[in-house]
Amino acid sequence: MIRQILRKTYIALIFIFLYAPIATLVVLSFNNSKTRAKWGGFTLKWYQELFQNEEIMQALWNTLAIASISAVTATLIGTIACISIQSMKKRNRAIVMGITNIPMLNAEIVTGISLMLLFISVGAHFGFTTILLSHITFNIPYVILNVMPRMKQLNPSTYESALDLGASPLQAFFKITFPDLLPGILSGFLMAFTMSLDDFIITYFTKGPGVHTLSTKIYTEVRKGIKPEMYSLSTIIFVTVIILLLLVNYSPKEKKPKTQSKKG
Amino acid sequence: MSKKLLSVPYLFWSALFIIVPLLMVFYYGLTDKSGAFTLANIAAIASPEHSKALWAAVRLSLISTVICLLLAYPLAMILCNMKVNHSSFTVVIFILPMWMNFLLRTLAWQSLLEKTGVINSILGALHLPPLQIINTSNAVILGMVYNFLPFMVLPIYNVLVKIDANITNAARDLGANEVQTFFKVILPLSVPGMISGITMVFVPALTTFVISNILGGGKILLIGNVIEQEFTQAYNWNLGSGLSIVLMLFIIFNMVITAVTDKDGEVSIL
Lengths: 264, 270
What we know:
Chain A is mostly helical. Helix content of chain A is 77%, strand content 0%.
């Protein structure tokens, strides 16, 4: 009994530790007073100002554009790479997987400066494109690490029997292999998308002056002194994250493999 | 359709954007401004200001890693012992803050801790002395623990969940009490999860410059801050690269430990 109470208390304390800061942001976003210390009544004006702030809206647009384009590109490159990695000899596969792991294990600051040095040396113009290339680079490993386990579970005989039954390799891939890989591809895509949304450090080193994603915009604002618009931005992001997570968690679970009754 | 050809785009991409940039860090780190070979950029870590920053980073990240471990282990155990239908939801609750923008989370602590911030106004209203923690290394530790705690909870939880109940039952049958079962059975079995968690907390904590900038108010210089300033303010890429090489040695050391203890690659955040 006492143990049960201790457990609940511990969970509650950690919960407070994790959520108190977020709750504070949410409350302050409705505070009609410039100073944090006082409650000046309920207001929605910071939300209005947020949406009228063109720089923040531009940064939001950049963030979403970079996250979508980089996640799609990384998913394509990563999935195609998985197909060939699977057919490699053991040693080559180990080397390629080792390289794939580098961006995940290395410190983000080192990845950031290394890409910065690359772009400087080729005289690239720092801006949207350099951020996008960097995001694709650190997104590909997330796709590969999600698709590879699915790839390993594949039964090569089904693909081969499709070929035997007269399917072209492309048909066989899209009718047989692809549906089995799909859950891995989707989770890889989602992970790449969120990693790109959340990234600050690599973006910071590969962005040009005047181009901002939300993260870098928040960073410059924080250094200038916090504006209440940032609180409303946090609230909106938090609510969005909750909704997305609920959707992902309560979406219908992955279907069980069908019996081979369908005729090709 | 040759499968070998399919690997070309990725191999090309990773050569261009992973291998070449890393080689450039080494090139810049091992040369001076005129391009001549030198070890001066790496030796620069021994200078008082740089070694102080490295030492501060190691100290703060070690403290945060230990605190994370101590907080996360009991939490992971409690989560494991929950009823199945509750537990997955609860786990989501505890990793949810991780999905919120990292800068906004740190910003939140700044608002809480500031001299005129939320905590101090509450303390003031209760006629209690104000908390002076912002711009100290304690605030930086707090920020690290807050940001990286989920990275410690997840791997430990993943390992604990997989421990077969029969193993602990067997230990109890054979006469071990609860404390013995924990130290002789559960703890040793969860070592891979702890190691993986330690890596996932230690590396970002060691290399951060954001948390120390926002919560340290520019007064706490970590090795990450020094490298960042060399690149974005001093434009001394050679020195910055040299210091990054030193930083990478720490990361490689950490990776080797992980590889030795987690051979099967069973534990991962994915």
